[in-house]
Model the fold of this input.
Amino acid sequence: MEAALPESARGGVAKPSSEADARRRRAFIYGLIAFLLVASLPFLPVNNYIIAAVVRALIFISLGQAWNVVAGIGGLLSLGHGVFLGIGCYTTGILFNQYGIPPWLGVWVGAVLSLLVALVMGSMTLRMRGVFFALATVAASLAMVQISRHFVDLTGGADGLALKFFGNSWWAAQSRTPAPFLYASLAFVTLYYWITRWILNSKLGLEMQAVRDDEVAAAAAGVAVFRTKMLGLLVSAAMTALAAGLYMQFYMAIDPEAAFGLSQAIQLQLPALIGGLGTAWGPIIGGAVMIFLSEVTNWGGTKIGVSGVDILVYGLMLLVVVLYAPKGIVGSVLRNAMKGADR
Done:
């Protein structure tokens, strides 16, 4: 009689379930340890350079998390996400320099403007598919480069926009040391992690994944394809613009290429691509690996008098991931764990 029972009735599902629960517990423990370690850095015997490097990593992780929503979960290869980074940076900076509006208020204006731009961009591009959508987002990004160069009085033109510096100031969201930015960027990464987890398990997230996997089948199942894509783009744009406010306060300056350039847009994608698209942990792990290698190669390049080594390492790292771990670091680890559970 036992042999006639289905595997689930004999407890065959219990092992994969327990394995999944164990993986989640381990991930939570490792994440908590990493969080506490990062949060304790200002109290450890480390210099400000290391803390600043960690802040850079956390900022790019948060930007990668925002891009992961539209590309990893929604399957839309946006190569123009620098548009929302630039809008967030320039809006925050212009409102602060010219009107005295503090960044922690100005960043919300940048988020609203990014939502409006995303709405216009999405209306024109979201019915395109594949490479055509990607090229359309590149065109939008390049157009913003030219616009920001043209309005010199507002944006500083090709020279860019630098913030007025007030030293240690909560009102201006400025500091002479990187420690406050460490906690702000850590808060962003933590918040965006939970937002990603929520999206993945929400109705919107399930619809976005269905559209990503097969638009025709999703539409046949009753999913509003265009609306789903638009909502994903809007959420991602707002997340990018909010993180851009922190980017602007940390770097204290922005220029057209750093904001809207294609190289910047590619950097925003690397954390999710390396770590694992469509996962909550992917951008965090990918961004940490990316910045660590960047700092090491920059240090090594300085020692031997060669610049641009980090760009070469980015390219090689991305090539290795594409060839040997197309689902990213997290995706490969999960796949191997599931294979182990089946044995």
